[in-house]
């Protein structure tokens, strides 16, 4: 447990997609996209995932397309 | 003429022959309109992320094609009228640059090495 005045351990966030040198995110690649949605099916914001602007916008586009084809959920079943 | 990618989700109840027939009905007009079917991928039966018309699965077919833009609207109209189509999506296909092609080839080589190929572009090996 962090004591008062003691800084929580910080790890710099980095874009995992840049790290993997991903050029383009495909809406068909639902396995990769599941890493960027919450268990409720929401798109994980950049401030949480640490994705860069370029990749985040690609993710949003891809997730939305994948949802149309029912590759990804709009919302998770148990919350409906 | 533009490069498109069309994915269609058919009713899982359709038998093989009917699916082939439906695919034919997608590819034929493309050829007739002076387009070109580049690739037909059958992903087979997959679980849907959510229920569509009380179906839990769907038969996925993915077609890459070159078509005149006017045909896309017509295609869309036909899909919507077709009862055995649960979902459809047509998007402009991105032209693959040399860099991506090289990266894809590299990834494919890596995936083959790991001998764990997935139907859709394998996720990078996380070692």
List keywords for this structure.
heterodimer; A: 80 residues; mainly alpha; 30s Ribosomal Protein S18; 4 helices; globular; B: 127 residues; alpha+beta; four-stranded antiparallel β-sheet; 4 strands; 37% helix; 37% strand; RNA-binding (chain A); rRNA-binding (chain A); structural constituent of ribosome (chain A)
What does this structure look like?
Chain A: This is Small ribosomal subunit protein bS18. Chain A: Belongs to the bacterial ribosomal protein bS18 family. Chain A: One of its GO terms (molecular function) is structural constituent of ribosome. The complex is a heterodimer of chains A (80) and B (127). Chain A is an all-alpha fold and 80 residues long. Chain A has a domain at 26-79: 30s Ribosomal Protein S18 (Irregular). Chain A is built from 4 helices and no strands. Chain A is globular. Chain B is of the alpha+beta class. Helices cover 37% and strands 37% of the residues of chain B. Chain A binds chain B through residues 20-24, 26-32, 65, 67-75, 77, and chain B through 7, 9, 46, 48-50, 52, 58, 60, 62, 86-87, 89, 91, 94, 97, 99-100, 103, 118, 120-121, 123-124.
Structural class of chain A: mainly alpha
Give the overall shape of chain A, derived from the CA principal axes. Answer: globular
Low-confidence stretches of chain B: none
What is the strand content of chain B? Answer: 35-45%
Number of helices of chain A: 4
Largest interface: A-B, 23 and 24 residues
- What integer is the average pLDDT of chain A? 85
CATH topology of the domain at 26-79 in chain A: 30s Ribosomal Protein S18
The assembly state of the depicted protein chains is heterodimer
In whole angstroms, the N-to-C terminal distance of chain B is 42 Å
Strand order of the largest sheet of chain B: 2-3-1-4
Largest sheet of chain A: none
